[in-house]
Amino acid sequence: MKPCQKHWEKLKAAIRSRGLWHLVAADGKAAMENVETDLRGRADDRNYDPLMACFFMITSRALDMGGLYLMTGDFCPVCEALKHRIGVPDENGSPCTEEGEESYWIDGPADAAMRHCQEIGLVPKVQ
Predict the structure, then answer these.
(1) Could you give the 3-state DSSP secondary structure of residue 95?
(2) CA atoms of 90 and 76, how far apart (whole Å)
(3) What is the value of pTM for the model shown?
(4) Which of 5, 23, 77, 100 is the right S-S partner for 62, CB 3.0 to 4.6 Å?
């Protein structure tokens, strides 16, 4: 799975707008080192990367919804979700819109990352 450029840029903008960009790994190599550290069970709050955390939140949810076919190529999890969700009624019976769905997939994880960063003291809590 690989986010398309449009959704990757939107996700990065969401992280920036929440003041979390200083926590993002400097490059792909550093991001992968953080992932490897986490997989080995040695991660701590100092190497929390909100961009990668959001990507993994999105990936996990997309796999839950769409299935393993997403792992067979460079499918953007957000684009795939939009294909399947636009026009389908939500829990309130309203048809899903692209804007609403993108917010769910981009802003939802970014907000969750922000709350996590506040809870662990990486950024101050806003009153």
Answers:
(1) strand
(2) 22
(3) 0.85
(4) 77
